[in-house]
User: Fold this.
Amino acid sequence: MASRTTAHAGVPAAHREVEAPGALRERVLAARSVQELGEAVVDWVESLGFPLPSIYLEVGGRLRGLAMRGYWQVLEGFTVERGVIAETFRTGDAQFVPDVRDDPRYIAAVPGVVAELSLPIRWNGRVVGVLNVEARDPLSSADIRIVTEVATAFEQRLHQFGGPEPESSWQRLARRSAELAALADPSDIGRFAVEVAGEVTGLDSAVLVVEERGELRVRAHGGPLGERLSGLSTEALGEVASWTSSATSAYTVGAIEGSGFAGHEALRRAGVEALASASLQSNGGRHGFLLAAGSERCAFDRSQLQHLEVVATHAASALYTALALEALRERAGQDALTGLGHGATFHDDLGRVLAEPGATAVLLLDLDNFKQINDMLGHVVGDRVLLECSEIFAGELRGSDRLYRVGGDEFAAILSVRDADEAVAIAQRLNRATRRHGRARVSIGIAMLEPPLVVETDTALARADLALYEAKRLGRDGVALYRPELRTDALDRSNLAADLSLAVERDELFLVYQPVVDLAGEGVLGVEALVRWAHPERGVLSPAEFIPLAEQYGHIEDLSRWVLDTACRQVSAWCAERWARDDLRLGVNISAAELGPGLVTDIAAVLERYDLAPDLLIVEVTESLFMDELGAAPPLRALRELGVNVAIDDFGTGYSSLSYLRRLPVNILKIDRSFVLELDDPKGAAVTRAIVELSRTLGLSIVAEGVEHASQAAMLRALGCEHAQGFLWSRPVEAAAFPTLVQRLDAELRPAGGPGRPAVMWPRPVEDAATLLDEPDTRCGDGAA
Assistant:
């Protein structure tokens, strides 16, 4: 817009003079329209020596220039979000900037501006526009008073005109489109689109129909016919869509009678007499339609259809942008493998649930021995197991329960329950279902959070984690409920674990050895190495007190390497001594946490280091490990191929299954001491007899553990059990005492007495289990004693 120069333009503020108020009124009253009023006002302001006056009215959600002077460009459509003018409009407060160089709100349009003054224009109590003045010299209080009087005069004349000129249909459409663009929720976009569709067409009802997964679905509806239209069949919606596939369409339903339009009768039954429809076009495709409808026939003009088309296009763009963002947010809140919420989602949801009344249970579910599945069978199989378990859990939980995958092999659930008993019952159901249907087993910790107890999210999780550890400590594949003493126990374990990390370095660990004897009188056949910890403050600790800590805190591999190396070094030393029993088998316990690809390599290296034949070593694993059959079989099979023996320790206390004995590469079965204690009970004796007979059928050597009385040894002999160990013959002893112990037991247990070596091979080779070999195995490395 070209600048107009007046006699007063550029006059310093101190010398500006105000013309008589009557002259201003005459100019204002002479205006015959709002446009003329704006021109008269900015002319007046410029004539007073203000070089950059302008006035704006809000149209279509933006401030549109009504009149301005002194600018070389047309300023149109100011946003109402930023700038001095926008702040005046938003707040309704006058904004005076004495020095624009010090105010970040100022938006420069011309150079050399020093001060800015913006005054709101009101009509019927609301702000409808802004009178703005920019000056190249300071503005005085008198200047501000002058401009304020001009703004007041403009408002008064505006009221006489009845307010700003009405929006045109296109201006109204622009404003409504701007409102639509500001929406982010798909439901809000749908509701808004059907509302505006009715406005631009003059019809009282509308529906937004979206194609989702290849099927048309009503996403939003409004007006008296909206509910009926939303109930139209997919076929009828498809027929309406076909009329909109290439152009925006409007018609009266009666006009198409006899035209063969399959959707016609469905629309008539819904009460529709007139409708207009525009396709939803976005990203180069059509994805549904926006339909406006009325119960009375009417005539349409093309501008209405053009408006509907604009609304549909904007709605499609806004809707599919919102749906894409919603999908991204959903994926961001989900675990990619299982589709469950992930750890951050769980944490957020738990925080909200804990703020609500009622009892809540937090469950942490950890798959037992899952690492072995990943290590031995690969992550593809591991992922299948995780997906399988997630489906089992989801199938057992109720509709109101929430399930998440919060770690590699860890899941979590949030339950609304009556009490702890209900939470425990649900957890036990999950445990049983996993045992029944899954390839892994699960340990579950429960934290109950009941009013009036109020805890933070982290506290709730810490309690569930303590309960989970308790379930693991008690043997895995079980359920444990948090109780306060677990926190004290956890602190004690943490301190003990810290000491354990230094136990090898401080030479606090030592081994003791317990003999395995032949019940048929052949003397000592083998020895089991058992680790002990001479804690400087707590005294001698048994493996049950620190092995679980070693597994939990990542010390188990270092500890096991030390045990294996120390035991093999000791057996090698015994082979070189004068009493030399080079046929003694050495049993070493292996934790489930160690059963990985490196186990066979480590064992082979140790055997080579101490020149020991592989079949002198027995690797003892607990029965619970065999529930992870997929993960356990490959490393155990590799050990058997190396020539190392594999024993199931504590058989009968875990997950007894005959199929495991048949399928897995084991050749020794060690009957748990609990069966030995029940030998005086006929039922207990019958169970032991069944285990012995089954083992012999499968070609497994049998060792009974925990034998303390001669009567127990006699009963085991009668049942067909071949070998045993226990306090009846000796408690575990240190290495220095073991040679004398072996010599004494050999002399006591052999009928003929005197030195010699057993006449049996132990353990039996699996491939020839039915035959007891007469020739003893004399190998100790490459030489004989």
The first strand starts at residue 52 and ends at 59. The CA atoms of residues 528 and 722 lie 17 Å apart. Residues 302-332 form the longest helix (31 residues).
